[in-house]
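Following up on my earlier thread - several people asked me to post the actual chain instead of describing it. Fair enough. Here it is, all 415 residues.
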Amino acid sequence: MTGLKIKISMFINYFLFAILLNSIGTIILQVQHYFGASPSSTAMIELFKDISIGVTSFLGASLLTHLGYKKSMLLALALAGLACLAMPLLKTFTGIKILFSVCGASFALTKMSVLGTLGLITQSEKEYISTMNFIESFFMVGIVCGYFIFSRYIDDRQAGSASWFNVYFLLASMAALAFVLLWSTPLQEEGRLLKGSIRKDFSGMLRLILMPTVVAFVICAFLYVVVEQSIMSWLPTYNNKVLQLPSTMSVQVTSILAGATALGRLVAGIVMKRFNWFPVLLTCLVSACLLVIAALQLSDKMGGTGWFSVPAVAFLFPLIGFFLAPIYPAINAVVLSSLPKSNHAWMSSLIVVFSALGGMLGSLTTGFMFEFYGGKTAFYFSLIPMTLLMTALFVFDRSRTRRQADVTVLREAFS
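Reply from S.P.:
Thanks for posting it. Predicted structure:
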């Protein structure tokens, strides 16, 4: 029963942070309406989120070993809950930046704590993987639900209405529920955490990033998140500004992106059991490029106020999530399987740090292009990092193959 309560708490945690972090596209659109802010200035919101995720992930390994997993998750929920509670009271642009900074740091703590907690409450590798898949599924469900939850609080009749701030009372209540549930559930972790230090973690990651395979992977991860965040964060604005959909529909239609991503990862899990990851990912990237070109060519057909009157392109473009979905989990699994388990913690920190940097660059660049060159040009920009990613994947595959060959030669020489 204790294990079940912990799992339910982690499900709620991931569900909550999925709504908070992936609401950034909705918030970017609403901030432009409510504060009259420019696209380039609203793009800075992503910077506050990603920097806080990166910094917390960088320092998190040492922090978790001193606080413990349960206290770290409780701290994350408390901070996120208080930030949500303050939002409807402040109603300021600065408050929004602080909210995403707090939520970014809280999510980084939560994600690392969940990974550690699963090792304590699961009895086998299969149970660990199964539980993690359920939690990740809840994350995708949270993203989809988040678009509809936020859209319920948006008033299309008054573009400058402050009604959307009230959604944060609901999110603060969810954080309080998760906090109470986790606080009332015992978790035996004493004596099972190894004490580390910030200096040791830093030197370990520095040694790791000097490896050619890791350098190639980091570039792949960085470019992937540039593409993902440039689309996910700005799709609601694209729907509203380019396709001229109402704000509510602009947010709701974006939920297709999250649904397509979830389906893409499910299908990829089946496909990659039979085929090598490299040709599968290249096929996905080529398909994604063709879909971007096709969708943007059709974006001249605009308007629509309901699901049945929305132009086809509004449904077509979010399907890019289906083709992009397999890339990030696949390259993470490949690089981790290429390294000793003793390096996995440091590698995980590098993954989160460079993902945050990629997300920040993708959103900022798209925001500036949206303002100065228009929405269609901004989304055509995604073709550049996608093309670079194809090249980076080729280099990553070659460096990994070469490293495996070197290891084989050494083993044969000393056998």
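Residues 197-409 form a domain with the Growth Hormone; Chain: A; fold (CATH 1.20.1250.20). That should answer part of your original question.
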